[in-house]
Amino acid sequence: MEKPPKLLIVEDEVHLAEGLKDNFEFEGFAVTVARDGNEGLALAERDTPDLILLDVMLPGMDGLTVCRTLRSRGMRMPILMVTARSQEQDIIEGLEQGADDYVTKPFSIRQLTARVKAHLRRTAQAAPLETAQLGDISLDFRNFVATRGGEPLALTHREFEILRYFLKHRGETVTREQLLEHVWGITHYPLTRTVDNHIAKLRQKIEDDAAEPKWIVTVHRGGYKLLG
Ligand code: CA
What we know:
Rossmann fold, alpha/beta, 21% strand, Arc Repressor Mutant, subunit A, 8 helices
C-alpha cells in the first residue's frame, strides 16, 4: 500500500483545524496541525509534508511570512493559502510569496478537498524533464540548480517551473492563462499581471538584454514563446 500523503494544517481556529483534520484523515491523509506560524514553520521543516494548508491570519508569524520563509529555505511542496478576506491584494501577495493556490473563508470542505487532491496529482505527474540547456544556461530541475556561462544563476522555484513549462512547449505560443494554470495551478482568478511580473524578472536573469529578449519573446495578444 502506498504511504498516505502528509498534510500540514497551520490554523489557529481550533474548531476549523479539528474539522479539517477529521476530514482529511477520513480522506486518507496523515495530518499534523500547527496552531501558529512559528509552529507551522517548525513542523514543515521537521515533517516535510506533501502539502500545506496555511492560514494567512495567524498569531505570531503570519502565513505570508511562513510561506516566504519556507520557499527561501528551498521547501517546494504545494502551499494553499487560507484567507479570511477576498481582497485581491492578499491573494496577489500570497502568490508572490510562493503560494500555489488560495481558498477564501468560508469555503466548502468538499471543494477544498478536491483542490488539495488536484495539487497532489499535479505534483505526482510533474514532468520528468530533469535537465535542459538554453544557450550557455544550464538548468537542473532535479536539484533546482542553474548556471549561466558556468557561473551560478539564482532562479526561484517558480522561475524553474516557468522555464520547465516553456521548455515543454518550446516554439509554441504560451498564454498567460496557461502559465497560471500549469505553473501556479490557478484557473479561477485573472492574475495575468503576476505572470508578466515573473516573466520580467526572469528575463533580467536569463537574457543578455531584457528589453530585447532572445529566449522568452512576447507574442502580441498571445502571450509568450520560448525560442531556441
Ligand atoms: Ca486565523
